[in-house]
User: Fold this.
Amino acid sequence: MRRRRAPDALDRRPDPSPTPDPRSQGREEDEEPSELDRVVGWFDQRTGAATYARTALRKVFPDHWSFLLGEIALFSFIVLVATGTFLTFFYIPDARPTVYEGPYAPLSGQEVSAAFESVMRLSFEVRAGLVMRQVHHWAALVFVAVIVLHAARVFFTGAFRRPRELNWLIGFGLLFLALGEGVTGYSLPDDLLSGTGLRIMYSAVLGIPFVGPNLAYLIFGGEFPTEGLISRLFVFHVMLLPGLLIGGLATHLALTWLQKHTQFKGGRATERNVIGPSLWPVQVFKSVGLFFLTAALLAFLGGMFQINPVWSYGPFIPYVASVPAQPDYYVGWLEGALRLAPAFEPVIPIVNWRIPSTFIPGVLVPGLLFGLLMLWPFLEAKFTRDKREHHLLDWPWEAPVRTATGFAILAFFLIQTLAGGNDVLAVFFNMQVETLTLIFQITLVVLPVVTWVVAYRLCVERQRAAAHPEAEAPMGGVALRRSALGGFEEVEEA
Amino acid sequence: MPGSGRHERGRDEGEPGRMTPLLRAVIGLSTLVVLALAAVLFLPGRGAVHGQEAQEGAGQVQQLESGAQLYVQNCASCHGSNGEGGPNGPSLVGVGPANLDFQMWTGRMPLAAPNEPGYRQEPTLTEAQRNAITAYAVQNFAGPQPAIPQVASSGDLRLGWELYVNNCAACHGPSGAGGAIGAGNVAPPLNAVDAVRMAEATIVGPGTMPAFLFPPDQLAALTAYVTFLQTAPSPGGISLAGVGPVPEGFIAGILGLGGLVVVARWVGRRHPS
Assistant:
């Protein structure tokens, strides 16, 4: 039998088989079942749902604020679906030209695409259209940021370790889908800014060795700018990617549910139990509150801050350039990579094949880094020879190499992202773009290394302090000696 | 005096040879009297006109004098005493009033130090001083062209948008927010110039900006559009500098993600169990 304690319940691992037949228990005292009971009972007799509901409501969730990040991502996604549905009522996924005749004077009488025209109508004529657009856009920006933070939490606490490697990979899939959603959505208004972004993406795809041109034709349907591009992007944005995203999310959550949540060390927590408040009532109320707070914050951003004013960019005209031209920040790392990379197009000797300059910074390096992160659970298990299951989380300093690597990769992407806005930042800091670019180029190489070393050292020091709390004297530093292989060893101070 | 007028005509039409010397004297005298009377009659008006012109002329002379003085004080050290240029500044020969007016109106000139690029700031000279310098320079070396353009108060907004997007957006940004264009050159935001200075910049091409030749209707359309960008309310809430995704990303990161972390920490407080 299961023992429960309120508010903190104890749930044993592995999950004991469900209690025999709890269906009869509920109604024992009720002589006169209420209306609600009758309705619930009706459904229960046909579905047997009460059994599951009962176990589900008893489900225990460890609580730590960082465990809510994934939930916030989910809630942002719900806001995205809701506002996005509203937008599809008015959006026309069609690149065919039409004449704009709305209230925005400078474009009145201008030939624009039907897609752009519909976004203008959404912004100026549809009631609440603009605020819906803006909430949708802000929610998209925040969605990706929260996913990244959530993933960082999972990474730095080692929550990806066995048995959760699969969910780690699914999580990465979700991140990529979210990025895909962002990029396709950013491009749908068919405005000048997003068209420039699409042009860059087209070139990046073209630059993939051997398959590039074919792949670009396959995705975009011909030479840029293609007639069918907008309608394709639309199908990706509202059907394919969200479908996959919802499926992936369901799997992600189901696995989390089945494998149970990880928990931090301390108190009564062990590898064999799960400690925390149960789903009903505590977590349910927390989650409902969290949902409304998330939605409120996104609505606040959408209502207060202008985002992507397509009217001032105007419709996409292939031969027109504009500054500053950035993608949304979550693909800023790609933009920055291209801005920082030197013009370097090596020729592969034997096949005499030139590697396009977009390939190394735009495809190869991010591919390797994402690959490293995705394979990290397996690499770590292999190198630490630790193939056990882990349900207790590490504190970040307990795994110095992992933590250091994670921060180094974050630093790398951060610099690239900032470099994606180098022209805007140069104006802001009153510097020459070229100087700033050079600074970024150097930092891109140096900062990850420095970050790695500093993070590693801090972790080791923290570990030592934790191991010997009494030694945590003001002067009690650790001297490290760096070996020729790049490893560190502690040196006892005399 | 009709009589004397007839006399005069009579004199013109008749034969002077037949008149006695006395008659001639009388006629001559009366003509003089008529002229004198006419002069007395008409003098007040013409005298006033003359006076104004004289005053204007004096004002112009004064303006040119003070212009010369101001030029020597503010500009000559770099541009030479006759605008011939020097090691610290380019020649101003033939730059024209539009360029002079633009440079001083936007505060770029006089440059504070020789080796820094002129940048947009509050003008350091008053309007009268600027006009004086312009007048002086135009008369002595700067030449009359390009003249300060007359800008029609309204223009075709759509045409203006099209001209702007095709010619200006690559440097000044689609919403006129400005941007870096390399080698330390910055295309400034277009929110601080009036229509005339807009037109001046367009035909003059200050600094690294190219000069454009637009017919008056296009110039009017262009300035009308930029004025629209400056004044028309842009819906959607607080506008983030009009430079797009970079500030948007910062807001999303700081307010959005930061706010949600605060929310998570608040909601996720541990139970005192």
